[in-house]
Design goal:
alpha/beta; 10 helices; disordered C terminus; ATPase_NBD; ROK_cs; Transcriptional repressor; WH_DNA-bd_sf; carbohydrate metabolism
Length: about 400
């Protein structure tokens, strides 16, 4: 017998609330009539949801009324930044960064600690110390904390890759960081790889706000991709989707710690740039690349452009993305230099839209992963999830 699932009323109501919140977030402020038009919900449904969201403080209607035609002027609605907060934690080989943001993405607290090859127990103790310091310094309603997003270099749980090489964190393979941090803080914790959280951060606060399908190429110590399809993040079975750093782009090329030769991140990554510029990959920071001889960085670009173009071509053909966004921890002026070299691109399915940009520069710099991590709890709480309508 063939069966199909219906939609119960509560799932539909929850979904509609998320849709209303999302359309206000994307547009800044909207009247009830504008929300109804943009969401295809009935005016009565929008009015009921708006009233509910106002009562719990998620949206505000205190802006000046707009002059209209006949009748009462319309009152625009906007998100209340103080209605929700989240924490983002970025841990990598040399630093621990903790940020607290509000619903609008404004940073309310930031703490950067330099670490070397961080190990689980002292690092968890340090995070606990920082979150206690944060509670003392920041005067907010802590009951509105949605949770913590954590970003660490991936891939996760892949034998021969996760525990080896300069792009991974050693000693964390068997640590349930979500459970440990949740027990320490009392808040829910979500762990993702750096490229995925950067894509979510770009969707919430960057150039991808109006995009539903895009690929974010994240230049970190290695190289990864965050993938959005139809407004939803694609993480894969074990949260390793987008680990494009280990695609072989130069058969027989440079040795990679994963055992292959010619992997993409051996040509496009901070690690490869450090090597080309004569910096020690185990101690160099992204900002150090700004001080190297320009000819050395250009020599890295010479070897990075062709593999990068291959990666963009593959991502476009596989995901039919509206655009590919390039960002990450590399300083923005250097990302711009890379992008300026990536032309002409290979033809792909994306070539049918010649007038729209196929490549855009995303958020760049050392805070990008932490801000993306902070967007994780907000994304989980407010982003429309169409799959619930099938439950």
């Amino acid at each position: 017998m063939i069966t199909t699932s219906g939609t119960n009323l509560e799932h539909a109501r929850a979904h509609n609330r998320r849709v209303v919140i999302e359309v206000i977030r994307l547009n800044g402020e909207l009247t009830r009539a504008e929300i109804a038009r943009l969401t295809s919900l009935t005016p009565q449904t929008v009015s009921n949801i708006a009233t509910e969201l106002e009562q719990v403080g998620i949206i505000s209607a205190h802006l000046p009324r707009r002059a209209g035609g006949r009748g009462q002027p319309a009152t625009p609605l906007t998100l209340n930044p103080d209605s929700a907060y989240s924490i983002g934690i970025h841990l990598d080989h040399q630093s621990l960064l903790v940020v607290l943001v509000d619903l609008a993405g404004q940073v309310r607290f930031r703490k950067l600690v330099h670490v070397q090859k961080p190990q689980p127990e002292p690092t968890l103790a340090l995070i606990d110390q920082i979150q206690q310091e944060m509670r003392q310094q920041v005067k907010i309603d802590w009951r509105k904390m949605l949770g913590i997003g954590v970003v660490m270099p991936g891939p996760f749980g892949v034998e021969g890759i996760s525990s080896q090489g300069p792009t991974t964190l050693h000693g964390w393979d068997n640590v349930d960081i979500e459970a440990r941090l949740s027990a320490l803080t009392g808040w829910p914790v979500t762990l993702e790889n750096d490229a995925t959280v950067a894509a979510i951060g770009e969707r919430f606060h960057g150039v991808a706000r109006q995009l539903s399908s895009f690929v974010y190429l994240y230049i970190g110590t290695g190289l990864g991709a965050g993938i959005f399809t139809d407004g939803r993040i694609y993480t894969g079975h074990a949260h390793n989707a987008g680990e494009i750093g280990h695609m072989v782009v130069q058969p027989g090329g440079r040795d990679c710690y994963c055992g292959n030769k010619g992997c993409l991140e051996r040509y496009v990554s901070l690690q490869s740039a450090y090597e080309a510029c004569g910096l020690d990959p185990m101690s160099a920071m992204p900002e150090d690349l700004l001080g190297v001889d320009e000819a050395l960085f250009d020599s890295w670009l010479d070897t990075a452009v062709e593999p990068a173009c291959q990666a963009i071509n593959i991502m476009e053909c596989v995901f039919d993305a509206q655009c590919v966004i390039i960002g990450g921890m590399m300083p923005q002026p250097l990302v711009e230099k890379l992008i300026n070299r990536l032309t002409p691109l290979y033809n792909s399915v994306r070539s049918r839209y010649p007038k729209s940009a196929r490549i855009r520069i995303g958020m760049s710099g050392s805070d990008t992963p932490a801000l993306g991590a902070a967007a994780l709890p907000i994304f989980d709480e407010f982003n429309p999830q169409y799959e619930v309508l099938l439950k």
